[in-house]
Each structure stands twice: as C-alpha cells, then as structure tokens.
UniProtKB/TrEMBL annotation:
InterPro entries: BTB/POZ_dom, SKP1/BTB/POZ_sf. The lineage of its organism: Eukaryota, Fungi, Dikarya, Basidiomycota, Agaricomycotina. This is BTB domain-containing protein. Residues 32-100 form the BTB domain. Gene3D superfamilies: Potassium Channel Kv1.1, Chain A. CDD domains: BTB_POZ_ZBTB_KLHL-like.
Length: 333
C-alpha cells in the first residue's frame, strides 16, 4: 500500500511511554491524520476518508478537536490517537473494505469472516454503503426469493462452512439483519433437531431475540405447512383431470397415503424429498404421464405457498417488509 516504509519515520518527539501498540502491516498511511488503536494494533488512516464513509466518524471529527499540543491528548507522530473497542482483525477487514474497493467488491466471492467484520463495524460506525454491500453478499447464501433459493448453489458468493447456521444467526441478530433469517431457519430445519439445538446454543442471544422459541415453533409450523401444501396430491379429494389410468393411479396414491407416516420419519422425510424432487415424484410412484405433470405442478404451487408463509412461521413478518428494511427490493435476492 506504500505505507510500510513509513513506519521507521516516526517523529523523535513521540513519547516512548505512550506507545503501547504496533503499527498494522496492512493499513498504515504515512499521510494519515488519525491513528485508530484496537487492542495492541494501530491503524493510521485519514480522518476525511473515515468521515466520508462513516456517520459516527463524521460526527466525531465535526466536533472541536483537542489541540495536539494538549498534554492530555494522546498523539502519535503528530496524529491524534483514538482507542476503539474492536478486534484488530475486524478493524483490518473494515478499513481495507473502505480503502480498497477490490477487497470487498459487490458480486464477488467473499469469505464469511470478512463479511462479518464489515457488518459489525459498518453497523457500529454507521457506514451504510458497506453495510448494504455486506447484506447483499449474505443474501446470496440465504436469499429471500424462491428463484434465488433454487439457484443458490451456483449463485452464492459466500462459501459454505461447518456450523454456518449459528454463525449467520448470531451475525443477523447482533446487527439487526432480518431478511436472511427465514432461509437460515429453513435450512437449519432440514437437520435433526438435536444437532440444530446444539448449534444454536453457541449463539449469544441479542436482546429481545427469542431464537430457540422462534426456531422450534417455526420448525413445527413449517412441518405442518409442507405436509399440507407439498403433499396436497395425497388428499383424498385431490383431482387429476385427464388421468390416463384412473384405477391404477388411484390405487398408487392410496398406498402412498397409507405409508406416509413411515416415510415422514425417514432420514429425508417424504415431504422434503417431494419438495426437492417435484419432477420425479409421479414417475417414482408409477403414475401415468398426465398425473406426473399434475402432481409436479401441485408440488410447485405448494412450494410457493410455503415460501410466502416462511418469515411469519419464524416470527419475522412478511418478505416484502423484510426486503424493504434490509435494502433488497428489486435485486432478485
């Protein structure tokens, strides 16, 4: 960055007893006007740049600043020192996102720890642009539209990792990002309950967020909704216009209906398998071509109904409100 060679050019007037930190190897600008210290790591940056990106720093630097000559003012090489209660790793990612556009680009694969750092500090210091960029990236992993969910594997820009449900829930609750939560809960609902609960116990609960209750109640409502809407083709009154072999197809569906309780307890419950494989259900059961198409369409319609109800199941309102509050209206996620 052209700054590392400057670290040896510190003014001899600096008091040795005041220096209890080490200049960052990543973010240190010789012409910077302020030194941000997190734990034992210091970052030399420009007050004007920080103010341009962050409302908190803008307000801070707009106030009358103490004179550098004031003995009560901590300085380093003629720069005011600000001591912040953030981790050095988070601050490094945040500052690099501010200074280097290529480090935190929209639409580019980015690892979760970098995004999490930007979320935490853009929320804390009110850097709206960076916060929105981070939310947009998170939404590729846990999107709010059914089309984006179906293409999630190909479109997600945040690589998956073990234990990510708890990590996403913690990040979202701590920073009031709600739009990703319905699909995080939805994905977690596919795991055995004991595994999910063990994972959720790792989450530090933010005030007023009843994560355990929201998840357990929502999981039960999701189960009931999928039985009702995804398996609507097993209802006795389900109509199959133009069925090519009424007696055979009726018997097949009757047998499937009789065995549904067994299949619900499978490693992949029958309703979840149907949801994920709508085009294969009729053929797997041995139905005629017309009934295969009818059932596929019924499952797809049921999937839409379940999806629209998803946020409300977990106590999160509706999709439209969630997208609007978190800036996702119109971006397809």
């Amino acid at each position: 960055m052209g700054e590392s060679d400057s670290k040896s050019n510190v003014s001899s007037s600096v008091s040795a007893k005041a220096v209890d930190f080490t200049p960052s190897n990543d973010v240190w600008y010789i012409d910077g006007s302020v030194v941000l210290v997190t734990e034992k790591t210091a970052f030399r940056v420009h007050g004007t740049i920080m103010a341009a990106h962050c409302e908190i720093f803008k307000d801070m630097f707009a106030m009358p600043q103490p004179a550098i000559s004031d003995p009560d003012t901590e300085t380093y090489d003629g720069c005011q020192v600000l001591r912040l209660q953030d981790s050095p790793a988070n601050m490094k990612h945040f500052l690099k996102a501010i200074y280097d556009f290529s480090y935190f680009q929209p639409g580019t694969k980015t690892k979760f720890p970098i995004i999490a750092a930007v979320v935490h500090l853009s929320t804390k210091y009110e850097a709206a642009g960076l916060r929105q960029r981070a939310i947009d990236l998170l939404a590729t992993a846990y999107p709010s539209t059914p089309a984006a969910w179906e293409n999630r594997s190909a479109q997600r820009l945040v690589p998956p990792f073990e234990g990510e449900h708890a990590a996403y829930i913690a990040l979202a609750t701590e920073n009031d990002i709600r739009v990703i939560l319905p699909t995080v809960y939805y994905s977690a609902s596919r795991q055995p309950l004991a595994e999910v609960m063990a994972e959720l116990r790792k989450v530090s609960l933010a005030p007023n967020w009843e994560i355990f209750a929201d998840f357990v109640v929502g999981r039960e409502q999701l189960f009931r909704a999928e039985l009702k809407h995804i398996l609507a083709f097993l209802d006795v009154g389900f109509t199959r216009p133009q069925c090519q072999n009424t007696s055979v197809c009726t018997n097949v569906l009757g047998n499937a209906r009789n065995h549904i309780l067994q299949k619900i307890t499978d490693a992949e419950p029958f309703h979840q398998w149907c949801n994920a494989n709508s085009c294969e259900v009729g053929r797997t059961l041995g139905l005629c071509n017309i009934c295969c198409t009818t059932i596929e369409n019924s499952i797809k319609e049921g999937r839409k109904k379940v999806w629209e109800q998803l946020p409300r199941m977990f106590g999160l309102g509706d999709w439209e409100t969630l997208r609007a509050r978190d800036g996702l209206n119109g971006n397809g996620m």
